[in-house]
Amino acid sequence: MPELPEVEVVKKSLKRTICNLTIKNIDIPNKFLRYKIDEKFMKKMVKSKVLSVLRRSKYILINLNNNYTIMVHLGMTGKIIITGTNKKNYKTSFYYELSNSKIAHNHLIMKFSKNILLTYNDVRKFGFIKIFKTKNLHLNSHLNKLGPEPLSKKFNFNYFKKNVKKRKVYLKDLLMNQKFIAGLGNIYVNEAIFLSKINPKARSNEIPLKKISLLISNIKKVLKKAIMEGGSSIKDFNNTKGKNGNFQQFFNVYGKQGSTCSRSNCIGTIQRIWISKRSTFFCDICQK
Ligand SMILES: [Zn+2]
Prior knowledge:
Elements: H1 4-18, E1 23-27, H2 39-43, E2 50-56, E3 59-64, E4 68-73, E5 78-83, H3 87-94, E6 106-112, E7 116-122, E8 128-133, H4 157-164, H5 171-176, H6 186-195, H7 209-228, E9 270-275, E10 278-283
Antiparallel strand pairs: 1-6, 2-3, 3-4, 4-8, 5-7, 6-7, 9-10
The protein binds zinc ion (ZN).
Zinc ion binds at residues 261, 263, 266, 268, 283, 285-286.
């Protein structure tokens, strides 16, 4: 499932390719996603121009010059495929082998000026595409309760300290709670907890203050590195170029049960347990 870094990578590709382009045509071969695409409303976006492409948590926000914003959530298997017709101009930025994704799972195809095509493809249909008035965007139920972005300055020691004391949940669950911090999921939480030498079963109110600073800096570090590597390709994620991310090569614990700990001075073995029905990976020695 795409987490913050994967969505950020897709957003960056979109920003590079569709900003300032005009929507020429919208085709909706299959409106059935997590929420039905409002065909009539969506088609009203034709002739508008893309002003900017932003990300909030795991949502991609395409701001148009008609005062509307298209929100895209990739769900589990949502893919955005950008296809250009002029290889000379676009070959380095976003070429995609269309044969890799089944046309049967195409839900929405937008044709832009400069012959750029954007296709939303989703095998498992957990993603969605909605439209909101740009000025009311922050009020909708997807965005209005989100915590701060982990890479923003708002996600800092004071924020963490203030919120962590009130809650006695597993630290891991707190980090995955989108109201506390937006965009983190199971992969990056497991990795950040490992880097901080914290036991995943620790309760949030028991974490020493010293560890909080370390954890915050490791969360930021792991996300930045993952974005730089193009995200992680686990099962279903490709970026808009159809290229796989590379960050999975740098996993220390995620999916590594049975391996020796990657810390050079540690002889521990990576264990897999379940916390709140989510697989949790940790070293049995350095994360005691
Ligand atoms: Zn270890």
